[in-house]
Every structure is written in structure tokens, then in C-alpha cells.
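Good morning,

Attaching, inline, the C-alpha cells for the sequence recovery test we're adding to the shared suite. The designed sequence is right after.
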């Protein structure tokens, strides 16, 4: 059941993967049977609304019970919702004879308040999330066959495995969502899971293109400002993109941009490039190096298209200003601070069930607990900016929000401002980086001051009316080997890329600050 995730995108992934909500205050309920107990037995569609209506926002936060550690003979003891006496401890061993060894979590649950109740738990380290539920009074064990890395082993030695108590009614939801697990497997089966998911939940079609699946292109035809739309369908990044596409309605999951320097050499600017240390940063790489990586080393089966800028805009594009911006951002980390805010614009129009604002708060809570050094920087700063406060922790933020008569959902919907500076500088996701460069380069003209590019999803970017619309001006190699002539140039990939609404939307002030995004139709009201 354990899903092992790459550290850097765990936090976002967890958002979609785990559904945990729990009782903060547990009523001393001694009866043998309680109506809440049957919630886990109900189908998800039924239990989720009941769970939501039974609890207020703050009650729905997952409760951190503590960390089961190995130190001495310290055992963690806590009171659950069903079992009132629970103890847990962690044992490290090397049964798997693997490099970093593994561990066993011993959990003893007793003193159930009724015959039918159960307790549902999430167990987490920054490197994995798993879950289990208990309805029998006895000792249970959770086996972790092998630690993923030296870093995880060090983490559990020092900090243990974090335990969160969940709302029992979430059992159905949790197991339903857990079916997303195969998305993360990096093999043909995992890739097929991603394709099936996108076909089923978004209505995407994956039509195979004729070979060759890589275009023999000449870089002479690629210019400054040309947009690269990328869609990865395999492995951790592939799964992350799949969920991002589903939540936002984008048919591409990643983006990069082309830039020529004064000598005419072609470069690629990319926010979300993986550096030597395994961090995702903003990088400017020579085209050849970038393309070589995508052709030979990228194991996510990337599908890539060049979206050439319209020649009129290319003529207007101020390369000097674009380079100045790109250089000022190079080396900064990927825009995790504001990534989720480009997606969440409304109080309830952006969350495909069973995701909702409570779930977002829950994920933030779990994340803050297992990686506080990232958590406070990642989201708390962005939330504080929305409140006009400083240094408030997530629980304080929730209290403050309620005090002001607002809600967490409303807080999340407040638009991000491009000029907000975080403790580690400005924050730009892959697509915000490109659009900000367009803005600096003068492509947004009179709207530059009334558009917040950090509010744009990838779909919002490729639907902008900025690209070449005269097919006879596309490069000769563009779609040369395909029977279908796309309005943009796909240069890599087995399946034909589709970008619905491509190149169709004119700019207007405050665009994309109030847009819903509900699958499978992703209806976008005019002027949102
Ligand atoms: C284990 O617990 C006992 C009794 O509580 C205590 O005397 C002993 O020092 C503890 N051992 C360690 C290694 O903490
Ligand atoms: C576990 O055992 C394997 C094989 O005996 C060994 O190579 C490895 O170093 C051990 N790991 C730990 C953490 O002791
Ligand atoms: C790629 O195109 C160039 C000319 O544009 C040609 O010389 C070369 O042979 C082509 N390579 C392949 C593998 O088709
Ligand atoms: C282009 O941008 C640079 C730097 O911001 C500026 O100095 C220059 O005047 C701009 N050029 C035009 C034609 O606007
Ligand atoms: C917030 O935290 C930062 C860094 O710890 C500190 O410099 C600043 O004074 C704090 N601000 C307030 C209002 O507490
Ligand atoms: C498209 O481009 C071609 C070649 O530059 C030109 O002859 C033609 O008039 C253009 N069509 C339109 C509708 O602008
Ligand atoms: C392309 O866009 C330009 C300006 O936006 C417009 O004038 C022209 O008619 C369009 N051409 C085609 C073929 O749609």
C-alpha cells in the first residue's frame, strides 16, 4: 500500500492522493453504536457529503497524533476516535537486506468505544505516504520493506514516522483515490494508467501518430519567444502532470520557452528543470543540451510541441527585456509558493470531487508536520500575504480567517499578485515564468499592468491568441511526417498532442482570476 514518491513533488501529489480529515475534538461517546460509525461502510458519493456536513472547517483538519520513534523505549501514546488507548513504536531492521534497511511500525489499539467503530490513519515521512485502518483491538504492524534513501533513513531515525488520525467516513474516499496509485509506476503499465485516466476523466484522446515520432527539425526556424508545450505521461512526473491536467483542464503539463542571444544562439528557459542536486529550479540551457536530454534521457515519455509566436508579436518582442528577466530568475526555485493559486480561483468551482478546500488545508497540515522547514515557506507565506499578516502558522491562519467571518476556501481564491516577493525571491511556476517574460518583453501591451500571470494555468497560456495562425508560414518540418496538420508543431511523441482552444483568447484586464475548472467539460464563462 505504500506509495513511494519523489520528494519534490510529493506535496502537490499528496493533495490529490490522500483524503484525510479527522476529529479535532472527540466527543466522549460511550454508546455501543454511533451513527458516524456507519459512514465508512457507505459509498464515497454518499459518505463524503455527510462527513462535510457533520463537521466545521477546523474540525476537518487531520489530527497529528505524534511520531512513532525509535528513540530508547519511548512509545507514542494517544487517544483515537474509536480506540481510546493506542500505542506505537518503530523498529528498524534489515530483513530486506537492502542498502538502507527497512522498518516495522508496531501499533497496539484497545478500548474501543463501540463494537462497530474504526480508526483510520495516515502514516507519513517526507518520502512516502501510506494508510491503514483498524477495527480490532489487538497489535497491528505496518511493514516498510526498505527506506528509499539515506535521507529517509536519517529522517526516521531522528523524527520517526508521523501518524495522523482521519475522519473514519473518509475510508471509501481514500480507497477510491488510492486507485490513482498505478499512475506513478514508471513502466508501460503505469503509462497506460495515465492514458486511461486522462481518457476517462478528461475526455482526452490518444491517437497514435505515424513514425518517426521525433521531428528532424532545423533550429533556424525557432525564434525568441516560441513556446514549448510539454506533456509527460510516465513515472512520477507523468502522474503529477496527469493530476494537474485533470484539476486544471490543461492538455499539457509542463512548459518552456525559446530565447536567442545576441550571437543568435538558441537557448531554452525552463522553470522546473531538475538540477544536479535533484532540486527543481529555473534554468536557461543551450537548446542542443535541452533537446538531447529530452530525446535520450527523459524517462517520462515526453510529448513536445513548438508553439511559434505570431510574427507581429515576434517583431514587438523586446529580447533585451526578456533576457533581463530570465537572468534575474535563473537559479531560483520552481514556483511552488504560488502554483496552486493559479488553479484555485473560485470558492467551489475548481475542486473535482472529492477534493475540496478542507482537503487542501489537510494536505498543508500534514506537510507542515513532516517538513516544517519547507511548509512554512511554501504555503504559509502565500496565505499570510493574502491575509495581510506575517508569520502566522496554518492553524493561526484558519483561526484568523474564521475571526474575520471569512473561510479558508475564500482565502485560497484570492488572486496571486505578480509582484509579491517571497523570502526566497519571486516565485514562478513553469508557465508563470514564460508569461512574465512575455509581459516584460512587451507582448501584453496596454494590459501589462492589469494581468497577473501567476493566475494563469497552462491551458490559460496556450489558449491565448499570441501564436502563428497562418499555416503556410509554419516551418517546413512542422508536422511533415504526420497525416494530420496541427496548427502548432509537435516535435516529439508517439501520440498526437491536442490543445483545445489553442490560440483563440484575446487578452483582457484581470483575466483568469475567477475561473472555475470542473472536469470533464471545464466550462469557462466569458470574462472570468
Ligand atoms: C526505558 O524505560 C525504563 C522505565 O520507564 C527506564 O528506566 C529506562 O531508562 C528506559 N530506557 C531507555 C533506553 O530510555
Ligand atoms: C542490509 O543488508 C545488506 C546485505 O547484507 C547490506 O548491504 C546493507 O548495508 C544493510 N543495510 C543496513 C542499513 O544495515
Ligand atoms: C534531417 O534534415 C536534414 C536537412 O534538413 C538532412 O540533411 C538530414 O539527412 C535529415 N536527417 C534525417 C535523419 O532524416
Ligand atoms: C527593451 O528593453 C530594454 C530593457 O528593459 C529597454 O532599455 C529598451 O528601451 C527596450 N526597447 C524597446 C524598443 O522598447
Ligand atoms: C517574521 O519572521 C521573520 C523571520 O523569522 C522576522 O524577521 C520578522 O521580524 C517576523 N515578522 C513579524 C511581524 O513577526
Ligand atoms: C499566409 O501567409 C502566406 C505566406 O506568407 C501569405 O501569402 C498569405 O497571404 C497569408 N494568409 C493570410 C490569410 O494572411
Ligand atoms: C491571423 O491573425 C491576424 C491578427 O490577429 C488576423 O488579422 C488574420 O486574419 C489571422 N489570419 C488567419 C488566417 O486566421
Amino acid at each position: 500500500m505504500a506509495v513511494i514518491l519523489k520528494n519534490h513533488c510529493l506535496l502537490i501529489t499528496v493533495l490529490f492522493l490522500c483524503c484525510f480529515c479527522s476529529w479535532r475534538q472527540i466527543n466522549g461517546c460511550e454508546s455501543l453504536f454511533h451513527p458516524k460509525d456507519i459512514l465508512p461502510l457507505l459509498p464515497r458519493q454518499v459518505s463524503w457529503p455527510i462527513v462535510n456536513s457533520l463537521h466545521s472547517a477546523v474540525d476537518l483538519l487531520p489530527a497529528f497524533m505524534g511520531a512513532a520513534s525509535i528513540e530508547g523505549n519511548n512509545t507514542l501514546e494517544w487517544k483515537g476516535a474509536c480506540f481510546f488507548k493506542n500505542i506505537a513504536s518503530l523498529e528498524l531492521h534489515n530483513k530486506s537486506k537492502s542498502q538502507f534497511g527497512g522498518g516495522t511500525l508496531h501499533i497496539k489499539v484497545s478500548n474501543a468505544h463501540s463494537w462497530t467503530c474504526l480508526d483510520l490513519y495516515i502514516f507519513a515521512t517526507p518520502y512516502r505516504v501510506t494508510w491503514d485502518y483498524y477495527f480490532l483491538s489487538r497489535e497491528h504492524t505496518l511493514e516498510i520493506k526498505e527506506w528509499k534513501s539515506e535521507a529517509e533513513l536519517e529522517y526516521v531515525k531522528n523524527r520517526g514516522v508521523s501518524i495522523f488520525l482521519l475522519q473514519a467516513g473518509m475510508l471509501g474516499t481514500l480507497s477510491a483515490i488510492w486507485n490513482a496509485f498505478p499512475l506513478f509506476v514508471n513502466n508501460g503499465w503505469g503509462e497506460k494508467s495515465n492514458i486511461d485516466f486522462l481518457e476517462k476523466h478528461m475526455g482526452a484522446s490518444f491517437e497514435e501518430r505515424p513514425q518517426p515520432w521525433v521531428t528532424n527539425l532545423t533550429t533556424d526556424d525557432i525564434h525568441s519567444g516560441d513556446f514549448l508545450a510539454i506533456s509527460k505521461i510516465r513515472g512520477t512526473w507523468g502522474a503529477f502532470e496527469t493530476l494537474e491536467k485533470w484539476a486544471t483542464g490543461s492538455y499539457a503539463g509542463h512548459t518552456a520557452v525559446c530565447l536567442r542571444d545576441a550571437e543568435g544562439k538558441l537557448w531554452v528557459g525552463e522553470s522546473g528543470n531538475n538540477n544536479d542536486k535533484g532540486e527543481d529550479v529555473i534554468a536557461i540551457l543551450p537548446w542542443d543540451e535541452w533537446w538531447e536530454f529530452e530525446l535520450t534521457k527523459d524517462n517520462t515519455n515526453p510529448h513536445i510541441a513548438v508553439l511559434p509566436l505570431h510574427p507581429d508579436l515576434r517583431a514587438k518582442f523586446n529580447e533585451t527585456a526578456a533576457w533581463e528577466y530570465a537572468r534575474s530568475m535563473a537559479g531560483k526555485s520552481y514556483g511552488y509558493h504560488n502554483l496552486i493559486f493559479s488553479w484555485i480561483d473560485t470558492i467551489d468551482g475548481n475542486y473535482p470531487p472529492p477534493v475540496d478546500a478542507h482537503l487542501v488545508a489537510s494536505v498543508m497540515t500534514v506537510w507542515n508536520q513532516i517538513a516544517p522547514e519547507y511548509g512554512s515557506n511554501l504555503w504559509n507565506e502565500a496565505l499570510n500575504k493574502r491575509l495581510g499578516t506575517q508569520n502566522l502558522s496554518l492553524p493561526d491562519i484558519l483561526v484568523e480567517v474564521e475571526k474575520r467571518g471569512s473561510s479558508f476556501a475564500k482565502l485560497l481564491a484570492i488572486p496571486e499578485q505578480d509582484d509579491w516577493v517571497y523570502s526566497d525571491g519571486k516565485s514562478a511556476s513553469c508557465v508563470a515564468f514564460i508569461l512574465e517574460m512575455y509581459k516584460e518583453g512587451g507582448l501584453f501591451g496596454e494590459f501589462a499592468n492589469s494581468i497577473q500571470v501567476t493566475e494563469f494555468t497552462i491551458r490559460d497560456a496556450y489558449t491565448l491568441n499570441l501564436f502563428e495562425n497562418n499555416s503556410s508560414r509554419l516551418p517546413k518540418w512542422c508536422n511533415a511526417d504526420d497525416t494530420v496538420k496541427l496548427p502548432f508543431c509537435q516535435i516529439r511523441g508517439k501520440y498526437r498532442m491536442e490543445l483545445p482552444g489553442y490560440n483563440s483568447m484575446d487578452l483582457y484586464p484581470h483575466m483568469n482570476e475567477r475561473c472555475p475548472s470542473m472536469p470533464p467539460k471545464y466550462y469557462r464563462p466569458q470574462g472570468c
